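agent: user wants the structure for Crp/Fnr family transcriptional regulator from Sungkyunkwania multivorans. delegating to structure tool.
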Amino acid sequence: MNSLWYFDDVNLFNVLCPHKFKKYKAVNDHEFDCYKKQDYIYFEQDNATKVYLIDKGKVKIGYYTEEGDEVVKAILSRGEIFGEKAILGVEKRNEFAQSLDNNTSICPVPVNTMHELMRDNQTFSLKIYKFLGFRIKKLERRLQLLLFKDTKTRLVEFLNELCEEFGYDCEKTGDKVIHHPYTQKDIASLIGTSRPTLNILMNELKEQNIIEFNRKEIRLLEKIA
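agent: tool returned. relaying tokens verbatim.
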């Protein structure tokens, strides 16, 4: 897969923000919402009346089990969309959205505005439906991994997923280089493990000459499976 969400432009904000459309450019009440680290954008059971596009920063999507354990479904960054179930008529949130950065900026879009755009613009509507289908497929895959696979397998699958989304070939060495937006804490949350366990597994792969890594880059020295 060469581009995330099947779009030519990976930045969904540029593609989907209604205020990029001529009809909505003059809307006077359009403002970006700003959040600090750990601020909640919405909670479970809140009314689902808006869709959100990330202008900058990172947002964690997740839910809490009956035992109070946090399950992280996704960590999203600039250009991505969340709260999209409202487009399909879901009236209450079944997840929370929380800012992970001190300067997260969000473009809130009322659901009726999104529906109007979809009704009036067939290309826009097609992009939305492709996005929804891919997001659902991706989340189902991640939840299956959390339920049925061991931690090392979850890490390997996640690295392969990162390679598909953010990887490119290094011309000098032929390695796959992955520039990604995640911290080690983010990755640990997404694969359902602790940071110490993640560090152990990453260093095991490094010692086996399978990967090299730093804070913002992972280099795949050979194919992992």
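agent: one observation worth passing along. Helices lie at 12-16, 111-120, 122-148, 151-166, 184-190, 195-207.
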